[in-house]
Amino acid sequence: MESTPKKITDNLFKEKLSEGTSYEKEVIVNETDLATRLGTAHIELISTSALIAYVEQCCAEMADEYLLDGLVSVSAEVNFKHLFPVKSGETIYCRSVLKFIDTNRLFFDVVVLNDKEISVGIGAHERYIVDRKSFLGENQ
């Protein structure tokens, strides 16, 4: 049995995606992101679940730029720590770095910063690359 993970093959990508690739998504926090709106807390600050959604979007957007037509990445796991409050109207920056590739799995390190470069949250995210039609059972 092989102990070293296999690297993803180039036949999944329009252009080569490699470990260390980074991506940033700028977001202006709005009312729909607040914990009060999502029902997760009685405080008008960004909810952890909204932050996680933005982290997932950031990683998905990076992967989507490289994937061949018909392939998509899907979320598999998120580990995230919410560190700092953010109000509606403030700008945050989700930054992801592709840390590791294993076959069809992508592992990202993520950080969310505010406009003062204070860490709002940090974590890790894993996504799988799948054939969209097969994944949805449309090839049967």
TrEMBL record:
<protein>
    <recommendedName>
        <fullName>Fluoroacetyl-CoA-specific thioesterase-like domain-containing protein</fullName>
    </recommendedName>
</protein>
<dbReference type="InterPro" id="IPR025540">
    <property type="entry name" value="FlK"/>
</dbReference>
<feature type="domain" description="Fluoroacetyl-CoA-specific thioesterase-like">
    <location>
        <begin position="29"/>
        <end position="132"/>
    </location>
</feature>
<dbReference type="InterPro" id="IPR029069">
    <property type="entry name" value="HotDog_dom_sf"/>
</dbReference>
<dbReference type="Pfam" id="PF22636">
    <property type="entry name" value="FlK"/>
</dbReference>
<dbReference type="InterPro" id="IPR054485">
    <property type="entry name" value="FlK-like_dom"/>
</dbReference>
